Amino acid sequence: MPVLSIMGLTAKYGKYTSIKEVNIEVIKGEIVVLLGANGAGKSTTFKTISGLLKPAAGEIIFNDEQIGGKQPDKIVELGIVQCAEDRKLFPQMSVQQNLMMGAYVHRRNKGQIKQSLKEVNELFPILYDKREDAAGSLSGGQQQMLAIGRALMAKPKLMLLDEPSIGLAPLIVEQMFKSIEHINREGTTILLAEQNANAALSIADKGYVYENGKIVVHGSSAELFSNEEVRKAYIGA
Amino acid sequence: MELLLQQLFNGLTIGSVYSLVALGLTLVYGILHIPNFAHGALYMVGGYITLMMMTNAGLHYVLAIVVSIIVVGLLSVLMERLVFHPLRDSPPIQDKVAAIGILLFLEALAQLLWGADYRQMPTPFGEVVNVFGLTLTLQRIIIVAAAIAVMIFLYWFLKKTFIGSTIIAMAQNREGAALVGINTNKVAILTFFIAGALAAIGASLTSPINLVFPGMGHLVILKAFVIIIIGGMGSIPGAILGGYILGFTESIGATYISSDYKDIIAFVLLIIILSAKPQGIFSKGGA
Ligand SMILES: Nc1ncnc2c1ncn2[C@@H]1O[C@H](COP(=O)(O)OP(=O)(O)OP(=O)(O)O)[C@@H](O)[C@H]1O
Ligand SMILES: [Mg+2]
């Protein structure tokens, strides 16, 4: 059963059409990757799902409910949480405060917040070591971990991860993808946007390839791996 | 020595009021990046509501302040809903023009409703007390104590409660706040309410030692802007520290230089501090 079905989704910035008639289906428990070059439309798709941008046309169905055009806070309450490409942390708040804000929708459930905090600290021990530090003082990799940790604090059913590997050292990237797999195994469905097609396809069930705001190819990870054009454009072999 | 102590206490008194007014201004600036010139009108309305509740409705000073807090808080929210919210996607200059428009409108309205006279606000705390050899009116002690209590409460609210933290979160990253599930509209409403309440408290506390009149907000709002520029736009500790710096400088300056120049001191201070720290004392904003 699909948790998320996007049908004919079009989104615009003013008059400029950024994505056009996009169709995506995500099944419960999957890792699905959106591939595409700079400016292809991955982040726009995420912004529209999260409610930061209103769809110009099309539908976004989450667990049988039409969510296109709802306010961002309602979408988080329904269980879709985005970890944006520029992370959008609260830079002068401490690491711990950032995580606490991530649990905002569960603010009345102190027990659950404590449990989530424990889980996040186990997944990213560095966040516990740096709990008193300002988020803005962390390294790029640590900030990315904090962004993912903050998203996890909301206990999402579906997590949108926008280029978590961007700007990170290769060793950290590998670790990051391991963490994503771990989060998925623990029960969170994941929609991932990446330019690092090789690494992303190796953990994903299936993928969609964007070009100029449209999806041009889609298929299982194995299919995309063996697709000539995808290899040429995104894997470089 | 005694004169100096007296002046330091004076500085503490006016500084407390400046800090309260500047705090409201900086909170609103932090989340919406609006320099809300109409904040001075909220201050003025706060003074009048308290005065009217006392003289016309016969309420006790403290109760009158509570009514004033609620009325001005709601007026501030109304301002956000009717003017700033609809203008959220317009060029920034429109917010500024609108804010000045609201200021002029409310002042004209106050003059129409309550006249242009300078009015005295009575206080039940008029007696003179002796503290550490200083002769002070109880009202001045109450100004300082109440302002500090309000600021401590505000600090606790912003830092230690989930609801209060939403204001700081939104000031530090608006989209980030939306993405953790915070309703940014509600935060804007809450922030404007708090700003209005702080203006009402500031005006009600200081009115018994000053006067109530339609233009009473002018100088205060100008100085509050100086304070938040000095302290760093959007910075909470900056607004508090800036308020006291200005309060002390003014009262000392009035004694040792000349009280004729008291109101210029703010702007001299502005120039001096900005030459040293162009972004203000707490330049990072937020808190
Ligand atoms: N705020 C904006 N205003 C106007 N146009 C925008 C805005 N954000 C993105 N665009 C345009 O929309 C198109 C899609 O951009 P988008 O950010 O979705 O791409 P992306 O696939 O996420 O790229 P990247 O890999 O660089 O993050 C681009 O042409 C971009 O220039
Ligand atoms: Mg992007």
From TrEMBL, chain B:
GO terms for cellular component: plasma membrane. The chain crosses the membrane at residues 12-32, 61-84, 96-116, 136-158, 187-205, 264-282. It is found in: Cell membrane. InterPro entries: ABC_transp_permease (IPR001851), BCAA_transport_permease (IPR052157). Its main location: membrane. One of its GO terms (molecular function) is transmembrane transporter activity. One of its GO terms (biological process) is amino acid transport. Keywords: Amino-acid transport, Cell membrane, Membrane, Transmembrane, Transmembrane helix, Transport. It is a multi-pass membrane protein. It holds the Pfam family BPD_transp_2. CDD domains: TM_PBP1_LivH_like (cd06582). Belongs to the binding-protein-dependent transport system permease family. LivHM subfamily. This is Branched-chain amino acid ABC transporter permease. It comes from Cytobacillus horneckiae.
